[in-house]
Amino acid sequence: MVYDWFNRQASDDVSTEKVLEEKPEGSEEVSSDSSNNQEESSSINQEESSLEWARSAYARLKAQQAQQKTSQPSVEIDSASETALAANVQAEFSAQSSSFEAGGSLLEQAALQRQVRQEELEEKVEEVSPQLAQQSQFLETSPEPRLGEFDETFAWSAEVLAAQGRKPEKISLEEIDWLGRLRRGLEKTRQGFVKGLLENLGDDPLTPEVLDDLETLLLRADAGVEATDQVLDALRRRMNEEVVDPAEGLRFLKQQLCNLLEAPIQDTGTDLLAPERGRLNIWLFVGVNGVGKTTTLGKLANLAVRSGYTALIAAADTFRAAAVEQVKVWGARSGVPVIANSTANADPAAVVFDAIGAARSKSTDLVLVDTAGRLQTKHNLMEELQKVRRIIDRLAPEARVESLLILDASQGQNGLRQAMAFAQAAALTGVVITKLDGTSRGGVALAVASEARLPIRFIGAGEGIRDLRPFNSFEFVEALLANY
Ligand SMILES: Nc1nc2c(ncn2[C@@H]2O[C@H](COP(=O)(O)OP(=O)(O)OP(=O)(O)O)[C@@H](O)[C@H]2O)c(=O)[nH]1
């Protein structure tokens, strides 16, 4: 099944009959905990129905997995992107993937087609050296997420999906897997924020003292003054109207945080940033040194292929010699061609020029442009970026261009200054926040949204190829304030 991550939907559904009667493994422990307290209030009932939803979703996923196991060849052949991915891997690293070989002649044909296309591009595309190919074999490939136990992480992830109005039969293992990663990734920020918050909330109604503590916690998580003020003002207004109990306080707080994060997204009129099919899409990645531009681009190239799009990488970071090699490794991991110029200090605009030409001739959906890291205070480097942007606009007026700033969450408020400076020079259309896993400053997402007024489009919460996904404010806030 192809899961289009950019649009958050599966392209086809695997029917799973009879699954509702199935009992998920390990569900007893969870259900017996809550069924002991039947006289409890409606919140317990709610908890029960969440668990019911989670159990039903789990049973369906389990059935899907079993079904895929028994009919593996046909499922794989049906799936266009899996076939393309398999073909790429076969063409480039034929020693690998014995499982794909079992797929038979259709896969071989796809591999052959891919190889012909690959050869056509050869004039422009940098070759993956045998050394590089060997190197990439050692990197994590892209194993399918596996359905684990019916545990608390599954139940939480299911609850988050259910709260967004999703149906148990419409959720994917991909989403469950990502939510678990996101929650783990936000552990450090959550530790500082939630522990303090929940301890202060206690069982009593909200007081002005609790709000003072909340103010400190938000500022400490790098949410910034503006976002903090907005949230506290809203809470104070609410407390003036009525007595607010802790559960309602928490719900209201989550709502406020979501509103803050959503405002710039709604302003763009585009909830989810997805490549537009049938049109050239060019995504430019900019930012200061070492924030994760190349890694983000590599993860997105993989996500694009997995989601059924064709992609191409423009290695326009011609400043750092290793950067071209690095994107080639990422390209090889996902079977995405890389356009590069191995001349020392080549003009990045020339690489972009070649990439647009190659993309046009192959009707590629998405061109991902890597750029060199630069300090926002270096005027000449910011001008170089403007030149790249101008070239894109001039050469591909028909393209849908996104200019994405990569921000390292651990840089906290400094990231906000970067956002302000790059917004001007690179005509930013959005932000990707990386390294949320290594920091307690995940609140910077709130500052970016409220002060730079830029939509957050993707978030990275780990170094793995699956640790970057489209941003969803509801899921982010739930993971940030998860009470576990
Ligand atoms: N923990 C963690 N590490 C990350 C994440 N994203 C990127 N990194 C790591 O950050 C380091 C720098 O990443 P790069 O992609 O090389 O950064 P860059 O912005 O392209 O660097 P320059 O080209 O030098 O400007 C690498 O070690 C990545 O593995 C993330 O979400 N979490």
UniProtKB/TrEMBL annotation:
Looking at the record's lineage, which domain of life comes first?
A: Bacteria
The parts of the chain that form a coiled coil are none
User: Does the keyword field hold RNA-binding?
Assistant: no
Q: What EC number(s) does the entry state?
A: 3.6.5.4
- Enzyme class, top EC level, equals hydrolase
Reaction(s) catalysed by this chain's protein: GTP + H2O = GDP + phosphate + H(+)
Start-end of Low complexity biased regions: 32-50
**Gene Ontology molecular-function annotations:** GTP binding; GTPase activity; signal recognition particle binding
Give the compositionally biased regions (Basic and acidic residues).
15-26
Specify the protein's topology with respect to the membrane: Peripheral membrane protein
Q: Where does GTP bind?
A: 287-294, 370-374, 434-437
Q: Which UniProt keywords apply?
A: Cell inner membrane, Cell membrane, Cytoplasm, GTP-binding, Hydrolase, Membrane, Nucleotide-binding, Receptor
Note down the stretches annotated as region Disordered.
1-50
Q: InterPro entries recorded for this chain?
A: AAA+_ATPase, P-loop_NTPase, Signal_recog_particl_SRP54_hlx, SR_rcpt_FtsY, SRP/SRP_N, SRP54_GTPase_dom, SRP54_N_sf
Read off the Pfam families from this record. Answer: SRP54 (PF00448), SRP54_N (PF02881)
Localization per record: Cell inner membrane; Cytoplasm; Cell membrane
Q: Which PROSITE patterns match?
A: SRP54 (PS00300)
Q: What does this protein do?
A: Involved in targeting and insertion of nascent membrane proteins into the cytoplasmic membrane. Acts as a receptor for the complex formed by the signal recognition particle (SRP) and the ribosome-nascent chain (RNC).
- What is said about its interaction partners and assembly? Part of the signal recognition particle protein translocation system, which is composed of SRP and FtsY.
Q: What is this protein's record name?
A: Signal recognition particle receptor FtsY
What is the originating organism of this protein?
Answer: Prochlorococcus marinus (strain MIT 9313)
